[in-house]
Amino acid sequence: MQHIAFIILLSFTSTHLEKVTLEPSGNIVLSLGEKLEITCTFYSRIYALIPSWHIPKTANVSMFRQANQLADGLYIIKSIVISTSLQLGDAGKYMCHMGNNNHVDVTVFAVFAEKKNVTFEWKMKRVDLSCNLSTLDNEGSLIFNGWHYGSYPLTEGSRYTIVTMTRFAGKLVTSNLVIGSPIRNDSGFYTSEFAIVYPHTTLSYRCLVALEASPIILIPPRSIAATIGHTATLTCIVISFPKTVVTWKSDSLNLTNDAFRISYGHFGGHNNSILNINDVQESDSGMYSCFAKNEVFRHRPHRSIRIYVKSEATLSRSLCFILSPPFSGFLLFSRFL
């Protein structure tokens, strides 16, 4: 999989009396195919004020304007530039201005990234994730700064091996992360971090590589008992990456969050789901199933739980048998009426 990443460097020059802001602020990284959105915001008492842009000749972007009035009579005027799918021609300087001395500009630098995502498989011996990064100009040079899983830095050890190679005077860096004896809970985004050093500035790039895992539902209890008039709660615990959507069915009927006496909830993360059936009725007895599906894997596993509904006034009858030697103690038999 190949990506082109764009690093945005912001600079501001403004002598206008009204406030001017630009978003994004600071340095950001975007990959080929991602959405680029730059918003230039003016605060003015003139509604008809229209900011204009100077953009690279090769850029393929769209522009639109928004205006809203504040309570004190000021207008918030936004001019927005969007590229829904970044291309190499989008690199260059973007200038939002209003008059000769009131402008904000953005410079886009390009680097080339090649990423290797991996899909988790049962009983894998190892996982190899990689990110190859190269500059597309003669000025910038690359420095590898390490791998992270979420916010946690990864170091060489019993499970992780990191191999890095730098070539062409820092113009190309290959970084590999090897995970030994992976488990499904290892799935997620891993980040290979780089510094890009230019003569007058140092930028950063975070290369996201995914270890994907198809949804698996941990085995719930096969049945639960619910009392008429109370709330029955079913839980569905799912491990997967990317994010999984969990849906519930009763027999063949889809259960929606806004249905009468039905509500959804989440716990311990986005994948896990709770189904609440409020004010349980006798007709709620039956089989309930949770289905898990994410955007990568078409297979949709499911697990089923049966609900047995009983009245709060149900009596429990017990028979007690005293055991004679050589046995000791008693046996207790119970059943619901």
Can you characterise this structure?
This protein has 337 residues and is mainly β. It folds into 3 domains: 17-109, Immunoglobulins (Immunoglobulin-like, Sandwich), CATH 2.60.40; 117-213, Immunoglobulin-like; 219-310, Immunoglobulin-like, CATH 2.60.40. 0% of the residues lie in helices and 60% in strands. The chain is built from no helices and 28 strands. Strands 1, 3, 5, 8, 9, 11, 14 and 15 form an 8-stranded antiparallel β-sheet that branches. Strands 10, 12, 13, 16, 17 and 20 form a 6-stranded mixed β-sheet that branches. A hairpin with a 4-residue loop joins strand 16 (188-197) and strand 17. It is flat, with a radius of gyration of 30 Å. It starts with a strand and ends with a strand. The relative contact order is 0.12.
Question: What's the structural blueprint in terms of helices and strands?
Answer:
Blueprint: E1 2-14, E2 20-23, E3 28-31, E4 36-44, E5 52-54, E6 62-69, E7 75-83, E8 92-97, E9 102-116, E10 118-119, E11 126-135, E12 141-149, E13 152-153, E14 160-167, E15 172-180, E16 188-197, E17 202-217, E18 223-227, E19 232-236, E20 238-241, E21 244-250, E22 253-255, E23 262-265, E24 273-277, E25 286-294, E26 302-310, E27 316-322, E28 330-336
Parallel strand pairs: 10-17, 18-26
Antiparallel strand pairs: 1-3, 1-9, 2-4, 4-7, 5-8, 6-7, 8-9, 9-11, 11-15, 12-13, 12-16, 14-15, 16-17, 17-20, 19-24, 21-22, 21-25, 23-24, 25-26, 27-28
